[in-house]
Amino acid sequence: MKVVNQEIPSIDGKSLMMGRQAYSNDFADTDSLIIKVLRSPHPFAKIEVIDISAAQELPGVVIVLTYVDFKRIPFTRAGQGYPEPSPHDKFVLDEYVRYIGDEVAIVAAVDEETAIRAVKLIKVEYKVLEPILDFETAYNNQQILHPEPEIHEMFPIGFDPKKNIAAQYHMEIGDVEATLNKCDVVVNETFYTQAQAHAMMEPHTCNARFDHLNRLVIYSSTQTPFHIRRIISQALEIPIARIRVIKPRVGGGFGGKQAVHGELIVASVTMRTGKPSKLVYTRKEVFESTYTRHPMRFDMRLGAMKDGTLKAIDCQVLSDTGAYGEHALTVFMVAGSKVLPLYNKVDSVRFGGKVVYTNHTPAGAFRGYGAIQGNFALESAIDVLCHKLQMDPIIFRQKNMIKEGESSAIFAIMGEGTEGTPMTMDTCKLEYCVQRGMDLIGWKTKYPRQVVSKDVVRGVGMAIAMQGSGIPLIDMGSAIIKLNDGGFYNLLVGATDIGQKSDTVLAQICAEELETTIDKIIVTSSDTDLTPFDTGAYASSTTYISGNAVLNAAKAMKSRLIEEAAIMLQTTIDKIVFNGNSFFDSQKKQKISLEDLSNRLYYNQNQKQVATTGSYVGHKSPPPFMAGFAEVEIDIKTGETSVINYVSVVDCGTTINPKLAQGQVEGGIVQGIGMALYENVIVTKNGKLVTNSLMSYKIPTRLEIKNLVTEFAESYEETGPFGAKSVAEIGIDTPPAAIMNAIYNAIGVRINSLPATPEKIWHAINERQNNQE
Amino acid sequence: MKIEFTLNNRTISTHILPGEYLIETLQKCNIHSIRRGCDTTNCGVCTVLLDDKPVPSCSVLSAQVDHHSITTVEGIAHETEKLSAHFGKEGADQCGYCNPALALAVFALRKENSHPTSTEIDEYLVGNLCRCSGFKNQNKAIAAYFEEEAYQEEQ
Question: What is the CATH number of the domain that holds B39?
Fold first, then answer.
């Protein structure tokens, strides 16, 4: 392969570093109205009186909107395919506010200062209601968060708002209780994960205006432009044909920009005023008023025989979706469906639980999407079991984990909100990943611990993980390739580059098939008017789903070009050989260059436009796999812990661009390390998020990240474009479990609640010492 | 009030509002490379060079730059291009949102220390956050840039 699997620089990196006009806010009209949102100071309240007169009278204020200005149309902001597996439980503005930061009123003014002043002039009388801030008390609580009659589910997801349940699910294969009763060793552990924040560098940004056709044009930092267009149309009753959504460059998403955030607000303001408007979230709003990762509690029970055969897994989950049920069911299900098949040889497996409403910032999509939470719980519990069995955790995993050619009954049973799709692991290099990772970290010499000094110890730990490659039979990507005079191509894709560099990866796939170089492929992506449909950048789908769509379009282009060349050379297609630059007729010994062919087609002879389309829906979701190995160093006097080495060995099929794939893995690893050790979420007793800035919410910096070693297994997935599977999410999954396992191996205490702050570790060490004394 | 300052070797005379921050003034001057990230001087995304020193433009009052010099990547395109080539080679450029500011911080480091160690690079750039890259490819690219520049200087 000449272009695929090559370390080609990204097509837009240079321009972005040089500061060119690229991101949503760079395209805002200079005379845009500036929008500010009044947000709730209470975790749960009913608006009794809202007086906007003083704000409206302030010179420079153009419009003030409250819930009375909106028709009550329930929708979900989730940004998923239609019908969504999330309850329609949100109104653009509502008379109830359900978390600190929920929208109360919208102000648009001629400048920012006026908008901020106007927001302060709005007088609201709230009837403050008792909030639910402990998700373990939400189910069946007498306080009901969503009493409104209009809300509904789109198809059965277990939605039961009278019991504060956004979604619920249960499945069982075999008989878990009976199997556990027969096991020699059973472990029973509870784990908690926190409401991690995405903390992408670009805050959520969007702006709107009317164009020369009097259509509403929105630039947005979104991961799902086509879903955004549909949701704006449904929630605001604007004909969909009147809306154009353009996603320019996006400064990071990680799931946090999958949903609708400010788009409905700018659309409302511009529709009502006729004026361009823009909304840039403050960092505080990004923290408080967008999304978090779903916090979860896992009650895990595992059973095994003395010889180390894993027999049963019971995984009961309680998930906190916050004030609205976006991604409630699907994130929850992925905590099982993309975790439990790792151990496919068990006799019985059970997964179930509830996703409850609370008065927290809503939870939504976040890289890993449930799998990281589930992986932390399962892979931690596996190590607890290994300790009880007195068995090396690697030997245990090698014995019990899924292998190439095998399957799991779970694939057929559990999908994302619906039934799943049966599949066999045609590529699964986990055995290699584990073996290679063991060598790279130096497991044999380092396991379980090394004493550095009186106060400093090191430990190693590991975890295995899987993810998916798109949602089978739901996620669809498509591409149009257009031949231009001069012999170069436009590649139009709905796929959404949010900084993961998918435009580059898709151009590589296109160039490889058309046997040309990447500079001949001009990519335009994510414009609902100009590019064909794509579900968007989520579920690790772009390389596999959109990549296959590009490959299909490129194959079609190749055939079309050969047809045209045959006509031009007065021969038949079977005689034509195409090398990317020229078409050769071997018999007649004549040739025509692509440039010449395209120029003739457009200017002189047999004139016509040559363009092809391709689309793709996955019939399976081949999982990428990885083994992650952490080496931690702990100061037992202070509890301070750092990851001094992290080894990742990944099977993602062919890496279309090895350096960019490495960036995806390492970016995920560092976010995973953040979730494991640093990203503490602090909420006050009355529901106020304390960690609402980059000063108080600690993401890893260059100084925390010591040594990362990332390698890829040789792997070729037959159904993927040039053998590729996905690589966007898999990197984030292993650090929480691998690091907690390493901490246990170092100091003999297990942290079951993330993040493992120095304080928690210090307390755990002291508690153990006190118990021993 | 009216201020006068040098922006990328051009003289700018402009009226500012009381309490106006440099980031706002620069955006009015059509500088796209300076962007908001956090409002609390933690992320480094709005970094500019004020008399060759990196400062967060979200927290510098425009009045403070009167008769001073401001540099953004738009003013040192050639140097930025060289650094960006190393980022491309190492696959270090993901969303790119923080990269113009990071480039400026790298150039400021080079003025102070043309042969930094890997630890010195990490310490100098610690205020430039990145949520995409995992840092390692960035640091390889930055080290390669320093190496190449040092080599060029010796020639």
Answer: 3.10.20.30
Looking at residue A673, its amino acid is I
> Which residues on neighbouring strands pair with residue A320, listed in sequence order?
A356
Q: What are phi and psi of A717, to 5 degrees?
A: -90, 115
Question: Which residue of chain A has the CA closest to B20?
Answer: A113
Q: Which among B44, B74, B104 is the end of a domain?
A: B74
One domain for residues B45 and B84: no
B62 and B22 in a common domain: yes
Note the CATH number of domain A13-129+204-280.
3.90.1170.50
Give yes or no: residues B87 and B27 share one domain.
Answer: no
Query: Scanning every residue of chain A, which has its alpha carbon at the shortest distance from the alpha carbon of B103?
Result: A17
Identify the architecture of domain A476-617 in CATH: 2-Layer Sandwich (3.30)
**Best residue in A8, A11, A12, A17 for a mutation probing chain B (most B CBs within 10 Å):** A17
**Best B24, B36, B94 residue to mutate vs chain A (most A CBs within 10 Å):** B94
Paired strand residues for A522: A490
Please report the residues numbered 185 through 224 in chain A whose beta carbons come closer than 8 angstroms to any beta carbon of chain B: 198-203
In the stretch 636-675 of chain A, residues with CB closer than 8 A to chain B read 657-660, 662-663, 665-671
Which chain A residue lies closest to B89 (C-alpha atoms)? A9
Cβ-contact A713, A721 below 8 angstroms = no
Starting at the edge strand that comes first in sequence, how are the strands of the sheet with B2-7 ordered? B10-15, B2-7, B69-71, B47-50, B53-56
Residues of chain A under the 70 pLDDT cut: none
CA distance A727 to chain B (A): 14
Question: Which domain, by its residues, includes B11?
Answer: 2-74
Query: Best interface-test mutation with B: which of A702, A706, A734 has the largest number of B CBs within 10 A?
Result: A702
pTM over the 0.95 mark: yes
pLDDT at A587: 85
Tokens 């400048």, residue located: A111
Topology of the domain covering A296-471+620-772: Aldehyde Oxidoreductase; domain 4 (3.30.365)
- Look at residue A771 in the predicted model and tell me its pLDDT: 86
Closest Cα of chain B to A661: distance in Å?
Answer: 9
**Calpha distance A18→A34 (Å, rounded):** 27
Closest CA to A196 of A380, A372, A374, A375: A372
pLDDT for B88 = 97
User: Could you give phi then psi for residue A12, rounded to 5 degrees?
Assistant: -120, -5
Indicate whether B97 and B139 sit together in one domain.
Answer: yes
- Find the Cα–Cα–Cα–Cα dihedral A639, A644, A646, A647, rounded to 10°: -140
Q: What is the dihedral of CA A753, A334, A431, A376, to 10 degrees?
A: 0
Output the pLDDT for position B126: 96
DSSP strands (E only) in A216-269? 216-220, 243-246
Nearest CA in chain A to B85: A14
Q: With an 8 Å Cβ cutoff, is B31 touching chain A? A: yes
Q: Which residues of B touch A519 (CB under 8 A)?
A: none
Confidence (pLDDT) at A62:
98
Is the pLDDT assigned to residue B155 strictly greater than 90? no
- pLDDT at site B148: 96
User: Which pLDDT does position A452 carry in this prediction?
Assistant: 97
User: Could you tell me if B9 and B45 lie in one domain?
Assistant: yes
B145 in the same domain as B90: yes
A284 interfacial to chain B (CB closer than 8 Å): yes
| Distance of alpha carbon A258 from alpha carbon A241, whole angstroms | 22
- If one counts the domains in chain B, the total is 2
The predicted structure's pLDDT at residue A769: 87
Which pLDDT does position A581 carry in this prediction?
97
User: Could you tell me how many CB contacts below 8 A there are between chain A and chain B?
Assistant: 178
Q: Out of A658, A662, A703, whose CB is closest to B123?
A: A703
Residues B84 and B61 in one domain: no
Nearest residue, CB atoms, A283 vs list B38, B83, B98: B38
The pLDDT tens digits of the residues spanning A270-313 come to: 999 999 999 999 999 999 999 999 999 999 999 999 999 999 99
